[in-house]
Every structure is written in structure tokens, then in C-alpha cells.
Design a protein that fits this description.
This protein is of the alpha/beta class and 217 residues long. The protein has 7 helices and 6 strands. α2 crosses α3 and α4 packs across α5. The protein is elongated, with a radius of gyration of 27 Å. The relative contact order is 0.17.
Length: 217
Amino acid sequence: MTTATKLEVFDAKGKKAGSVDLPEAIFGAETNVPLIHQVVTAQLAAARQGTHKVKTRGERAGSGVKPFKQKGTGRARQGSVRMPQHRGGGIVHGPVPRDYSQRTPKKMIAAALIGVLSDRVRANRMHVVEGFGIADKPSTKAAREFLASVAPGNRVLVIIDREDELTALSVRNLPNVHVLFQDQLNAYDVIVSDDLVFTKAAFDGFVAGRAAKEDTK
């Protein structure tokens, strides 16, 4: 399947308002599934807090005195009530605080994002809009109705410019809608979304940012 070189832009009324060019280097790449899996797994691992902790025998409260004498009771010898086999005793080989983050090269992260974006373009699941038509104050109702006409998927990722506060406030309470700034776009959020909706300002900013990174290599 070939990748389109242009994408139509729709206005707040759902009518065509022009088109944008889709750079081949960003939206025409091959989708490398193993690479995307590795990057997404690393991203999810980095999100783990790793603060789980259990108390060992030495950290449990309790007397260090033998619970009963060594011999003559007919029972197995015991040295302390803090031993693991006792109720309230320490835990053996339990979890301790650790860092789950994995080192992932920046080139791999960038390649994974480009791969999933290219896949969404080929599947006609990426959309660009002039704006949500929200001028004066935030309107969740207007945002919901507009997205229903533009993005048919159940889970929608909205990418906006950092200056677009009205849109951010309008879509943030919508169920199954996630909003990101264009410089926060990542492979995981694209993967878990059915449709991507860029505002024109966010799309231009994202493409310019990718082009600037390519020029610095």
C-alpha cells in the first residue's frame, strides 16, 4: 500500500479547507513491529514507580527472644517470632525498590514514532483540522460533536499546539479522548488510539520540529 503525499484539512464545519504535504521521511516509513514493541515496552517500564517494598526478618517488629525452649517440647526448634514461617514475620525474597527504566536510544524512539504514524496514514486514521471552532470559551459539547464527525474511532488522540488552551480545556473531559501537545507525541499513545486528530498548527509544528532534528544530525 502506498502512502499518500497529501492530506486534506477540514474546517470546524467538517468541510475541506485545503491540504497539507506529508513528508516521506515522516509519514512514509516502513512499520517495524519488533522495534515498536521494544520502544513501547521500555516506555511502559519507565512509567512504573518501582516503590514496592516488603519487610525482611530484620525489619519486622518483635522480640528476639526464643518463643519456647530449644528442647523438650516436641516441636521444631525456633529462634525468633520474626522468622518467615511465623504470622507477622519477615518476607523471604520479596520485592524491593528498583528502577524499571530501560535505556532506549533516541534514534530508536524516533523510528518507532515515525513507523506508527506512517501506519496510521496508510490506514486513513490520521486527520488534520483547522481548529475545533471554539472561539470564546471552552465547550466540551462542541468538541464532542466535532470529533464524532471527523474521527470515527472509539479511542481518539488529539494533538494540539501549546498555545491552544481552549481546545485543551474542551477535550480533556471527553471519555476515550486523550490530548497531547505536538512535542509530547510518542509511539505508545499513537498505538493505543484508533484515530489521530492534528490541529493545523500542531501538525506544522510537529513537521517543523522533525525537520529541524534531521538537519542537526
